[in-house]
């Protein structure tokens, strides 16, 4: 008998599906959907660029260290002045490599990239919630319309079939409502924190790269006390 009731309910929903079903409209969701569209920003390209920057700098640091070691080896038997220049080059290579691999890279990952990844993950999650919410809303609208069709003619109401329809509406609403609320509240939170979500990693990146470049510059200055001054004078080709 239960199978018969389910079949009747499914048949009613199928008939409703072929008609235009009134759509559940939540003004809060409509506003949140508009807001989400405005604040949607795919930061995956930015994340990829930062990862590529990290990789390139690490390659440069490794190559620089190898170059410094080779120079030091090649000039091991050279005059003292040449050996000093080779040692200065090796010293810079070591410091540049250490600053890049032990300072910049470990700090950029948690303080810049991880924050952007967290933002991107939330954007992706909300896109999934929006899709799931739409599917749940469609099912809820169908079952609600089916129930209304049963109630449209009280004289022909089958109590068992009516109860089945009510249970279906309740079940579908329980699936739809949490998704609807999740999207609305999460978009609001994302909007409120959007400026800080971008501002913090951007400031962190500026701070870290500034410290990094200043320390690299300090190491470069040691060349001025080892190499002749005219080496640092730029002469344009004629």
Low-confidence segments: 1-6
Q: What's the pLDDT, averaged over the residues?
A: 86
| Count of beta strands | 0
Helix content: over 70%
Basic shape: rod-shaped
Under the CATH scheme, which architecture would be assigned?
Up-down Bundle
Q: What would the CATH topology be?
A: Substrate Binding Domain Of Dnak, Chain:A, Domain 2
**Global Rg:** 33 Å
| Percent of residues in β-strands | under 5%
- CA(first)-CA(last) distance: 99 Å
Structural class: mainly alpha
Supply the number of structural domains. 1
Superfamily at the CATH H level? Answer: Arfaptin homology (AH) domain/BAR domain
Helix and strand run: HHHHH
Q: What's the total helix number?
A: 5
Biggest sheet details: none
Describe the protein.
- The chain has helices spanning 2-17, 27-39, 44-74, 80-151, 159-220.
- The protein is mostly helical.
- It has one domain: Substrate Binding Domain Of Dnak, Chain:A, Domain 2 (Up-down Bundle), CATH 1.20.1270.
- Helix 1 (2-17) crosses helix 5 (159-220) and helix 3 runs antiparallel to helix 4.
- The radius of gyration is 33 Å and the shape is rod-shaped.
Q: Which features would summarize this protein structure in a list?
A:
BAR domain-containing protein, Substrate Binding Domain Of Dnak, Chain:A, Domain 2, mainly alpha, cytoplasm, 0% strand, 238 residues, disordered N terminus, AH/BAR_dom_sf
């Amino acid at each position: 008998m239960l199978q018969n009731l389910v079949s009747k309910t499914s048949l009613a929903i199928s008939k409703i599906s072929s008609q235009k079903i009134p759509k559940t409209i939540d003004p809060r969701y409509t506003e949140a959907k508009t807001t989400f569209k405005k604040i949607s920003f795919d930061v995956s390209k930015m994340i990829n660029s930062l990862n590529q920057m990290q990789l390139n700098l690490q390659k440069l640091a490794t190559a620089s260290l190898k170059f410094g070691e080779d120079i030091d080896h090649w000039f091991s038997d050279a005059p003292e002045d040449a050996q000093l220049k080779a040692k200065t080059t090796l010293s810079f290579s070591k410091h540049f490599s250490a600053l890049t691999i032990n300072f910049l890279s470990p700090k950029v990952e948690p303080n810049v990239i991880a924050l952007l990844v967290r933002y991107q993950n939330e954007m992706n999650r909300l896109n999934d919630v929006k899709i799931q919410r739409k599917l749940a809303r469609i099912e809820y609208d169908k079952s609600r319309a089916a129930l209304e069709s049963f109630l449209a003619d009280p004289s022909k109401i089958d109590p068992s079939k009516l109860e089945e329809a009510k249970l279906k509406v309740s079940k579908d609403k329980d699936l739809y409502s949490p998704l609807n609320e999740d999207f609305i509240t999460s978009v609001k939170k994302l909007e409120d924190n959007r400026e800080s979500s971008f501002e913090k990693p951007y400031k962190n990146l500026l701070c870290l790269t500034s410290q990094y470049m200043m320390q690299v510059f300090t190491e470069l200055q040691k060349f001025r006390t080892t190499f002749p001054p005219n080496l640092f004078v730029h002469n344009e080709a004629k």
